[in-house]
UniProtKB/TrEMBL annotation:
<dbReference type="Pfam" id="PF04321">
    <property type="entry name" value="RmlD_sub_bind"/>
</dbReference>
<feature type="domain" description="RmlD-like substrate binding">
    <location>
        <begin position="28"/>
        <end position="267"/>
    </location>
</feature>
<dbReference type="InterPro" id="IPR029903">
    <property type="entry name" value="RmlD-like-bd"/>
</dbReference>
<protein>
    <submittedName>
        <fullName>NAD-dependent epimerase/dehydratase family protein</fullName>
    </submittedName>
</protein>
<dbReference type="InterPro" id="IPR036291">
    <property type="entry name" value="NAD(P)-bd_dom_sf"/>
</dbReference>
Amino acid sequence: MVGAGYLAGHVGRRLAALGHHPVLSSRHRPTTPGTRGLDWLPADVVDPDSLTRLLATARADTVVTVHGPSDITWCEANPALADAAHHGGARRLAALLDGRRALMISTDNVFPGHRTSYGESDPTAPANAYGRAKLAAERALLATGNALALRVSLVYGWDRAGLRPNFFTTSALRLAAGEPVAVPDDHWNTPVLADDVAAWTAALLTTEHTGVLHLGGPRRLSRLDWARHLARAQGADPALARAAPRDDTAYACRPRNACLHSERAATVPELRGLEPVDVLEASTRLIAAGEEPP
């Protein structure tokens, strides 16, 4: 696996539970609890020799890539660096695959956000530098003829130890502490649980499907409505979640509608029984459990 962050850890654990031998990779050894017990090798996507050593040492027969910076605001401020990591890394990896199957986890930011939701057949028009870099990375890998780009909507789950915890984690922790959270009421997502992304990734690796596939959660909601649900689920005052226009927040460079639906998933037998869970149901369950997996 090219990547060793929060989502890579979830995918790695899912693959290991199914009897596979996943190997994470990154420039620095991961320290988050979710990667504990998984094998790791050093790799840098900007260095083709590093990627060559990774594929040889790991004896990889399939590659999952979750590489590159995911801080969308940072990518907007550093578009050349974002492209070098996402697009450049994918281009170097594609040159080394030599027939291996690859699955890239991509993003809803490849769309402009004018429509309520986007399916696989909708034309792309990235909303920001992150989306442009990811779309170019998709194309580099898909050109190999044996790759699948799995575009996912906003991924969530407990990530207390992460370098940049996701929206669910940061909002839930702040609200539980009685701290206000200012979030947009004019920015919508179809959030998808990290466990569901991992389940789809593992299932799709066993197929011959190529091209693009979308994974979004079944509910479209605003960040504000989600934050207020998180407050209520913890017995906190929902008024702590305060409305802030998207353009006045760090979400200004994101598409107004970062929502996905799939036109293809129903035709993939391996995905039957893996329908993504509703975000409000999963959020309530995560808060009740109170702990992320070891």
